[in-house]
Specification:
heterodimer, A: 299 residues, MetI-like fold, globular, B: mainly alpha, 2 domains
């Protein structure tokens, strides 16, 4: 008891420092966490989070809705291809950039491909809607080469791929920089040894570069795994239209329309809870995997 | 590697490599050039699809329109205020939280419990709707605080900062403690000065985050006059036409010279400009931030 008193006297200032942060997190993270109970209630503005209990009614309703099941599939489809495509593109461009002898040119390329990464999806969506319109620049170019115009944003079969490719386009500059950093850390003596053994450029890449890069690739893959339920709200919300809901509507856009636009708070929360629960499992297992496979710890 | 002689196949490879890299870089730059060209072109030229990467029938009307009609400038001002205020609050809270958490549990009672309290919010959250309901109930709707307080303590960045403080030499703090400095004095006089480079890193994350965030504006603000730039831009994507129709008599003359595409292009370009200008400076920090966050075991 005396011991604790002594510690409090010594440490109270640090506890005081933590107080504002704790209060804010309590209000804006933990109260909403408690608010998830409305997924099992019929939300009533007057009664707030203690509205009438209805059990799993909203979940039963949701899973009987083809629209909802569709959004899960769409989210996974778009997110998985974004993840795989993004990593593949970044690795390839890191390897290609690494072949350049000219340092300045390398730097310029690196800077240019990094630009889209910093702009918000709002601005990029504005640009893409213009570029990818049926009479936009990209289609003008396609027609100049004798191809048929493509309805990038309005055709349900093409829309998911427009999302996947434009997301890779936005993000691969960042990945490339990460892999380039990993490449420069490779011991030059390894290449020397490979050359003495008669390995050409290609074999050097195959037997030295790629194995040395593997831990970084695994790490990035594993960390991306935790985000598989996030198919990109900012991007899709700003580029989609009812025409492409069939293939382009994802969990987050569905929650937004249901919860915020139509004010169906309980059903919207049920969808959100479903997503958060799966995400939790994915994030925890991806951190575990990252620790095991790449010896990487965030905390 | 330079010693290797350049074979024919190597030359072919390099030629292809350069071509490919140049093409890819162009794909990252040309969209912005196109946007810029459209923003500087005349209405008929744009409508006829004559503009590619160079302005046709050069005019500044679209920019004049953006600057004269109050919305854009007001949104820019809102964004500056929000980004400044939001980032300041982020930084203060991050420092105040990261410093005690950087001690181990023998120096701070309950340290691991505190840590778990913060980390858990990264793993599991109430999601969009309960958060929206809490912010509304708290009476923050239609105030700037709805965009600042819910994310006032960015936990991930706070952990980056905490890891950095842990890397600082203990001796200085210990010496000050023996001299009778309180923890607040210690944080302010000893730790904070050493923290500047990493504060710059996490500060930039916060600045870009606030600047680019449009969503909280959309859901929490009903009054368009309060929109920050990103939210204003987002609303432009869908409703530029109707906005132009509402343009008062003073602007009707100007509005007749521009069309939806040129007007929108000019405003998108202006919105992208601040980030594009500071971005070469940010680049360095973003990659260093990535390595700061990791503790290799």
């Amino acid at each position: 008891m005396k011991h604790i008193k002594k510690r409090i006297r010594r440490e109270w200032q640090m506890h005081l420092m933590l107080l504002p942060g704790i209060l804010l997190i309590l209000i804006f993270s933990y109260i909403p966490l408690y608010g998830l109970v409305i997924a099992f209630e019929d939300y009533n503005p007057g009664r707030g989070f203690s509205s009438p209990w209805v059990g799993i009614k909203h979940f039963q309703f949701l899973f009987s809705q083809p629209n909802f099941v569709r959004t899960i599939w769409n989210s996974l489809y778009i997110a998985v291809f974004k993840m795989l495509g993004g990593i593949l593109t970044s690795v390839v461009f890191a390897l290609l950039l690494n072949e350049l002898g000219n340092k300045i040119l390398k730097r310029i390329f690196q800077t240019l491909i990094y630009i889209p990464n910093f702009l918000s999806w709002v601005i990029l969506a504005g640009i893409l809607t213009d570029l990818l319109a049926v009479d936009g620049l990209v289609n003008q170019a396609l027609q100049a080469f004798g191809m048929n115009p493509v309805n990038f944003l309005g055709s349900p079969s093409i829309f998911p791929w427009t999302m996947i490719l434009s997301d890779i386009w936005k993000g691969f500059g960042f990945g490339t920089v990460v892999y380039l950093a990993a490449l420069t850390a490779i011991d030059p003596e390894l290449y020397e040894a490979a050359r003495i053994d008669g390995a050409g450029r290609l074999s050097q890449t195959r037997y030295v570069t790629l194995p040395m890069l593997a831990p970084t690739i695994v790490l990035m893959l594993v960390l991306a795994l935790g985000g598989v339920m996030n198919a990109g709200f900012d991007q899709i919300y700003n580029l989609y239209a009812p025409v492409v809901y069939k293939t382009g509507d994802i969990i987050d856009t569905y929650v937004y329309r249901l919860g915020i636009t139509q004010a169906q708070y309980s059903v919207g929360t049920a969808v959100g809870l479903f997503k958060s629960a799966i995400s939790l499992v994915l994030v925890v297992s991806s951190y575990k995997l990252a620790d095991k496979l790449a010896n990487y710890r965030i905390f | 590697m330079k010693k290797q002689k350049t074979s024919v196949s190597r030359k072919i490879f390099l030629a292809c490599n350069y071509t490919l890299l140049v093409l890819v870089c162009l794909s990252c730059v040309l969209p912005f050039v196109h946007l810029f060209a459209i923003s500087l072109s005349g209405r008929p030229a744009v409508a006829a699809g004559k503009v590619t990467f160079w302005p046709v029938e050069f005019t500044l009307s679209s920019y004049e329109y953006a600057f004269k009609k109050g919305d854009f400038m007001r949104a820019l001002g809102n964004s500056l205020v929000r980004t400044f205020l939001g980032t300041m609050i982020n930084l203060i809270l991050m420092v105040l939280t990261a410093y005690p958490l950087s001690k181990d549990k023998s120096r701070l009672m309950g340290r691991n419990i505190y840590m778990a309290f913060f980390v858990f919010t990264m793993l599991f959250s109430g999601g969009m709707i309960p958060t929206y309901l809490v912010v509304s109930k708290a009476g923050l709707k239609d105030t700037i605080w709805s965009m600042i307080l819910p994310g006032a303590l960015p936990v991930y960045n706070m952990i980056i900062l905490m890891n950095f403080i842990r890397g600082l030499p203990e001796e200085l703090q210990e010496a000050a403690r023996i001299d009778g400095a309180s923890e607040f004095q210690l944080l302010y006089k000893v730790v904070l000065p050493l923290l500047k480079p990493s504060l710059a890193t996490v500060g930039l994350f916060c600045i870009v985050g606030h600047w680019n965030d449009w969503f909280s504006g959309i859901i929490y603000l009903n009054d368009r006059a309060m929109y920050p730039l990103a939210t204003y831009m987002q609303s432009l994507l869908r409703s530029f036409e109707s906005l132009m129709r509402q343009a008062g008599a003073d602007y009707r003359q100007l509005a007749s010279q521009i069309n939806v595409r040129t007007g929108r292009a000019a405003q998108l370009f202006l919105g992208a400009l601040p980030v594009m200008v500071v971005y070469p400076f940010l680049q360095k920090y973003f990659t260093s931030g990535l390595t700061l966050g990791s503790v290799k075991g």
